[in-house]
Amino acid sequence: MTDRPTGQGGPPQHDNAAPEDILPNDPGSIAHGLGVPPETFHPDEENQENATISERFVYFLGTLGALVRKQVWFLLVILGTMWGVLRESVRPNSWRRTVRYEFQLTLSDVAGRGLLSTLVMGSLTGVGVVSQAIYWLGFAGMAKMTGSVLVSVIVRELAPILVGILMLGRSGMLSLAEVGMLATGGQIRSMQAEGLDPFLLLVLPRTLAFTVAGFTLGIMFSIASLTTGYIISRASGALSNSLFSFFYDVVTAMTPADYLLIPLKFVVVGFLVGLGCCVSGLTASNEDSLGTLLPRGFSRGILIVMTVSVLFSLKV
Amino acid sequence: MKRLNGPLLELADATPVFDESSLPPVPLSMRVMSGECVVIETRDMSRATMFSDLCSGMVHLRNGSAHFMGMCWDDLDDRHRNALRGRIGRITRRPIWTDLFGTHVGIMFKELHHTTVSVPDLTSQTVRLCTRFGLPGIPVETPRRLSSADLVRVTCVRAFLGQPQLLLIEDPLEGSPVDISGAFFECLTEARDRGASVVWFVRDSSVWQPYRKAVSALWRLADDGLLTVRIR
Description:
The complex is a heterodimer.
Chain A: H1 45-49, H2 53-89, H3 97-112, H4 114-139, H5 146-185, H6 187-193, H7 198-236, H8 243-253, H9 256-282, H10 290-313
Chain B: E1 9-16, H1 18-21, E2 28-32, E3 37-41, H2 45-55, E4 61-68, E5 71-72, H3 78-85, E6 88-91, H4 103-114, H5 119-132, H6 148-160, E7 166-170, H7 181-194, E8 197-202, E9 217-222, E10 225-229
Parallel strand pairs in B: 3-8, 3-9, 6-7, 7-8
Antiparallel strand pairs in B: 1-2, 1-4, 4-5, 9-10
Helix pairs in contact in B: 4-5, 4-6
């Protein structure tokens, strides 16, 4: 082991570069957040009165551009950080002790402590949705459709949405509050002063932990809901076949594309929920408090979960 | 630690952007050689914090340049900048402690990130420093649970840990709930003997008087910039 910090002379043996999209252009900003939406375009009143048509047109375009940028600002930041996370995650240099430690902490919190909540929610879904679907399909004489309907409704559509919302409410909001308080409190700036990149230390490990947890919890949710649904249906007499046979029907109802799309949906939901929460926290400004951060983060998170679900449903 | 031939820290007519730093937008020039201790008197400690940021390459410059270890901050990419900042020990008035981890992790976090020193070695270094500053060991509670006296102690430990090459110190002695001056001066001297440079910001000149003989230069940071003062 060497005790020499790297970074002297030649290329460093570590270190990251957070994507410019989220790094502040104003490192000394008294607002400690790592970026704020662009200001609206303010007219110069005096010049406006004497402006030519071409100047007015340029001003109109400027106003329009500022308005558009303000509306899509968060989307652009998310796209930039998404690329940053993907790029940094494949670099061995990014995975230092501190980053691995943060990854483990977040993963144990999201996947470990969230497992029970997921199983309970899956069981309730099994009772409320799966058993009902089995009963009514049998009642309508469409029992052969049971497998494909359950795959379409529960595993492909409902599970990613519910798991996404669960992760968002249980761990995403916590992440948002933690990172947001660090940003508004000035600790993020202190980290930067010590060469600790908040993107590498907070955004990267947390986002990837959410990604892994999204897949894990999604699969657990699906298993719990289908198993509970089977037990309830079996107890009520709506089903007579074995558990193995029931799961065989479900698995055979899945198309080859499902084997790719369903896990991918869980992964993408987890990835974007984690990223959205971290970025919302990191971009908090001095005017923000928990009262403004949490509602904003939650609404963004819900929007992300629903958007991913819709896009996958459309096979985009 | 290798000693540089040139200055370890150099500001050459560095003119900070006022909007982002609130530092006076005047050219600032300063050279600190290896092993030197420079005291900068300033009434406003938030200005000292921003000046430290300037020395750490965190403030945009309108003109001039800031060099650390012979490298210009502006010429470096983010990775190199972060690596260099890992060699700076700072005591700052800005909040640095988070409750995400215990204090023990918070103290060692920078070293864990920037170096490959084994955890046992790092722990033993930390224990030595903690003991020197009057702590019975390494605190493992979250920083929020520590007394203000212990927080001052662990802040000093954090700054001196890992043999930094530059120490940017916003005076921890004035108004401190505990007397740590003995340990503080010892650590300063040890760091300088290794070749580290020290920039020590003080509000009150009485604070650095016990260390007066070892001070290389005295400056004053005021509205009209950085002024040299004769040591009496």
